[in-house]
From TrEMBL, chains A, B:
Pathway: Pyrimidine metabolism; UMP biosynthesis via de novo pathway; (S)-dihydroorotate from bicarbonate: step 3/3
UniProt entry tagged with the keyword Chloroplast: no
Entry's EC annotation: 3.5.2.3
Annotated residues for binding of Zn(2+) 2: K92, H129, H163
GO function term, MF aspect, one: dihydroorotase activity
InterPro entries, per the entry: Amidohydro-rel, DHOdimr, Dihydroorotase_CS, Metal_Hydrolase
Organism: Sulfuriroseicoccus oceanibius
GO-annotated cellular components: cytosol
Protein name: Dihydroorotase
Length: 334, 334
C-alpha cells in the first residue's frame, strides 16, 4: 500500500526537549501536520507563530514536512488577522467559558463572535475543542448545540470539530455544509471499556474520553468510508511516562510513530484499503486548500514491534507499547 | 451523633499481612461486617470458613466485632448447606458466565439454580455481584434482567444486590419483595467524572465503576431516606499503593477507617442525620435477622486529617488521603 503525502490534521509537538524527541517521529512519515498552539504561554501572536515554526523546523532537521501553524484563539483585530492569514491554517478555540448548560455555553461564545466574524470575512478556518464542562460522557454531545449555533451564525466560516468521539457528532457533519471534523486513531479503536473496563489504563486516557461502542462504530464507519468531511488528526500527545503512570495521570495518547501502520491494518482488515488515501490526506487537502510536499510512504503487512518508549530524555510511552502490530513502514520517498 | 452497632454489610478483609493491617480498622468502629469470601483460593468449604474466621479473630484482637462469614458460590449439596447455615450469613455469587446478552446471562445462571433452590428452601441469603461482561457503563443495568429472573423464580430467596450503582437498581428494590441492596460510600459521593473527568484518579477506580450524576442522585436519595431495603456496605478494598498507582491499576476504594465520619457529614449536611442509624445498622439487622454486639460510636463535627496511608507493611491509600474531613470519631464504647 502506498500513501501519498499523509497528513496529521491535529498534532501536539510541544516545545523544547520534548519537541526534539517527538518532532522527527511525525516529520518522518507524515508530509505535514496541523500544529496545536497550546504551549505555555499559548502561541497567540504572529511573531510567536514564526518562532515556534522555526523551532519545529530545527527539530525535524532534513525531513520533508510542512508544519501547518495555528494561532491560539483570543480577540484579534482585523489587522492582526490579515497579517497572520498567510502564515496559519486556522485558529484553535478552546471555549473555557462553556458550561454544561448549552445556553450558557453559547453565551460564553458570544464574546468570541466579533473575532469569529472577522475570521469568516477573511476565510480563516476555526478549529474547536468542542466539550462543555458537563459530565464527562456528555461533554461533546452538549457542545453540539454550540457547533449548530456557530455553523448557522457564520455560514461562510469553515469550522473543524476537532477529535470527535460520538455518533452524534458524525451525524452533525451532514447537517451543516461548513462543518468538518478530525478523528484520532484511538477513537476508531477503543471505547471507555479499554480505559476503565478492566484494569485502569492510563495510557489510553485522553480527552475527549473514549465513549460507547456505538460511538466508536459510527466513527469507524465514517472513517472507513472516507466521509468527505472527515480528516485524520492524531491528537498525538506526548506526556513523559512519569506523568502518565503517577497517581492522577494526564490525558493524551501518543500515536504519531504508529498511526499509519495501524490505519493500514484497520482499513485493509475492513476491506476499505482504497479509502485510506482520502482519509489520510486528500480530504484535508480539499477542505483546507493546502498542497503538502510530495512524500510516498510504502506500507507492508509485516509485523512491527512497537518500542516500549520513544525518546531518551523524557521517554514517552506510545499506544501499543511493547506489542506487535501487523503492518510496517517499508520505505519513505520524499 | 451516636451510632449504635454500625454494620458494614460488604467488606474485603483479605488475608495474611493485609488482614493484619486492615482488620482492626474495621473492627474498631464497626460492630460487625459481612466478610467477602474471594480469597485465593476462594472460601468455599465450611472448614475454610472456620479457619478464615479464626484468622480474622486473631487479627482484630480485643475489638468487639462480629465477622459475618460468607461462602463463595459453587454447587453445594443439601448436606453441605445445612452444615454451613449456622456459620454463614449468606453465599456470594459472582456470575462469571454472565455476558452482555442478558438471555445468555440467565442461561449461565441456570447451572446455578439447583443450589440456589436449596438455599431458598433453607433460607440462606444469596449475595450477588451483579454485572454482565458488557460495556462498562451498562454492566449493572444489563444484569437487572437476571435479578428479575431470580427474584421471580425464587420468591422466598432473600437476594442482595451488592454495591448497586445505578438509578435503575434503586427502582428495582421496590418491584420485588425479596430484593435488597448494599451501597458503598463512594457511590453516594462520586461519578465517573471524579474517576476520569479531570485527571485520571486511580484511587477512585472501583468495580462497578461510578456512574452518571443521575445515578448518584438516586443512590444518595435512597440512602438519605434510609430506604428500608438498602444497607451500607463499604466494599472497602485494600490494595497496596503500588498496585493502585502503577500502569493498569486494580479496582477498589479503601474506605473502612473513614466511612462513619463521612456518612455522618453527608447525612447531617443533607438534614437526614436521624436516618443514618437505619442505613448503617437497623435495616441490615432486620433484613438478615442478625443482632450484632452492642457498640456506641460517638461522632462529632470536628476536622479529621485523613492519613496518606494506613499500614506499615504494605501501605494502603484511603479515600480522602491527606485531606481533612469534617467529622471525627469522638469515642467508641463497646
Amino acid at each position: 500500500m502506498i500513501l501519498n503525502s499523509p497528513l496529521d490534521m491535529h498534532l501536539h509537538l510541544r516545545d523544547g526537549e520534548m519537541l526534539g524527541q517527538v518532532g522527527k517521529l511525525s516529520a518522518e512519515s507524515f508530509s505535514g501536520a496541523v500544529i496545536m498552539p497550546n504551549l505555555v504561554p499559548p502561541v497567540d501572536r504572529l511573531d510567536m507563530v514564526h518562532d515556534y515554526r522555526g523551532r519545529i523546523e530545527s527539530a525535524i532537521g532534513d525531513h520533508v514536512f510542512d508544519p501547518f501553524m495555528t494561532l491560539f484563539f483570543r480577540e484579534y483585530s482585523m489587522e492582526e488577522l490579515e497579517a497572520a492569514k498567510p502564515h496559519i491554517i486556522g485558529i484553535k478555540l478552546y471555549p473555557a467559558g462553556a458550561t454544561t448548560n448549552s445556553e450558557a455555553g453559547v453565551k460564553a461564545i458570544d464574546a468570541a463572535e466579533p473575532t469569529i466574524r472577522r475570521m469568516e470575512e477573511l476565510g480563516i478556518p476555526l478549529l474547536i475543542h468542542g466539550e462543555t464542562h458537563g459530565f464527562v460522557m456528555d461533554r461533546e454531545k452538549e457542545f453540539l448545540e454550540i457547533y449548530r449555533h456557530l455553523a448557522t451564525t457564520f455560514p461562510k466560516l469553515r469550522i473543524t470539530m476537532e477529535h470527535i468521539t460520538t455518533a452524534d457528532a458524525v451525524k452533525l457533519l451532514d447537517e451543516y455544509e461548513n462543518l468538518f471534523a478530525t478523528v484520532t486513531l484511538q477513537h476508531l479503536l477503543i471505547t471507555l471499556d479499554d480505559v476503565a473496563g478492566g484494569m485502569l489504563n492510563p495510557h489510553l486516557f485522553c480527552k475527549p474520553i473514549a465513549k460507547r461502542p456505538e460511538d466508536r462504530a459510527a466513527l469507524l464507519d465514517a472513517a472507513l468510508k472516507a466521509h468527505p468531511k472527515l480528516m485524520f488528526g492524531s491528537d498525538s500527545a506526548p506526556h513523559p511516562r512519569h506523568k502518565k503512570e503517577c497517581c492522577g495521570c494526564a490525558a493524551g495518547v501518543f500515536t504519531a510513530p504508529i498511526a499509519l501502520q495501524v490505519l493500514a491494518d484497520l482499513f485493509t482488515k475492513n476491506g476499505c484499503a482504497e479509502n485510506l488515501q482520502a482519509f489520510i490526506s486528500d480530504n484535508a487537502q480539499r477542505i483546507y486548500g493546502v498542497t503538502p510536499p510530495a512524500k510516498k510512504v510504502k506500507l507492508v503487512q509485516r509485523p512491527f514491534d512497537v518500542p516500549a518508549t520513544y525518546g531518551d530524555v523524557d521517554p514517552v510511552v506510545p499506544m501499543y507499547a511493547g506489542e506487535t502490530i501487523a503492518w510496517s513502514i517499508e520505505s519513505i520517498d520524499a
